């Protein structure tokens, strides 16, 4: 019994970790560029969240959420989180893999600032 519980617990944790990093909810074969106003950035675990207000094809305002890397990635990559916080309220373009179901969600690939600077994110 002493070895059964740790083995089962390890299996449960492993499956949960794999499920967490699944990209089945996004179309990894497609990319979209969404231009709009950066409304907020949350540097929270397990992934940073970027919120962008954009207009759809009918001119309706839609708030997109993009999932980025974990907060620790920014420090390791030498990217300052303050760059994004300073961009709140400004126009940016976000390149991402879009949600398969058409919802305003994507897996972040790159943020392009209005002045042409960009920050890319490794999947």
Mean pLDDT: 84
Number of helices: 3
Largest sheet: 5 strands, mixed, barrel
Computed structural class: alpha+beta
Strand count: 6
For this structure, what is the CATH class? Mainly Beta
Describe the structure.
The protein has 123 residues and is of the alpha+beta class. The chain has a single domain, classed as Beta Barrel (OB fold (Dihydrolipoamide Acetyltransferase, E2P)). It has helices spanning 4-20, 71-77, 81-86, and strands at residues 32-42, 49-55, 61-67, 91-98, 105-113, 118-120. A hairpin with a 6-residue loop joins strand 1 (32-42) and strand 2 (49-55). The longest helix has 17 residues, at 4-20. The chain is globular. Residues 6-19 have low confidence and may be disordered.
What structural keywords apply?
123 residues; globular; single chain; alpha+beta; 5-stranded mixed beta barrel; 37% strand; OB fold (Dihydrolipoamide Acetyltransferase, E2P)
Task: Kindly summarize this structure in a few lines.
With 123 residues, the chain is an alpha+beta fold. The protein contains 3 helices and 6 strands, in the order H-E-E-E-H-H-E-E-E.
Write the layout of secondary structure elements.
Blueprint: H1 4-20, E1 32-42, E2 49-55, E3 61-67, H2 71-77, H3 81-86, E4 91-98, E5 105-113, E6 118-120
Parallel strand pairs: 3-5
Antiparallel strand pairs: 1-2, 1-4, 2-3, 4-5, 5-6
């Amino acid at each position: 019994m002493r070895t059964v519980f740790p083995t089962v617990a390890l299996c449960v944790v492993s499956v949960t970790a794999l499920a967490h990093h699944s990209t089945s909810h996004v179309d990894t074969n497609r990319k979209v560029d969404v231009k709009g106003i950066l409304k907020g950035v949350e540097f929270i675990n397990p992934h940073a969240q970027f919120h962008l207000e954009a207009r759809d094809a009918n001119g309706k305002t839609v708030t997109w959420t993009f999932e980025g890397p974990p907060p620790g990635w920014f420090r390791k990559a030498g990217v300052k989180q303050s760059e994004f916080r300073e961009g709140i309220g400004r126009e940016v373009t976000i390149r991402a893999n879009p949600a398969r179901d058409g919802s305003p969600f994507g897996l972040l690939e790159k943020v392009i600032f209005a002045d042409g600077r960009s920050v890319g994110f490794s999947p």
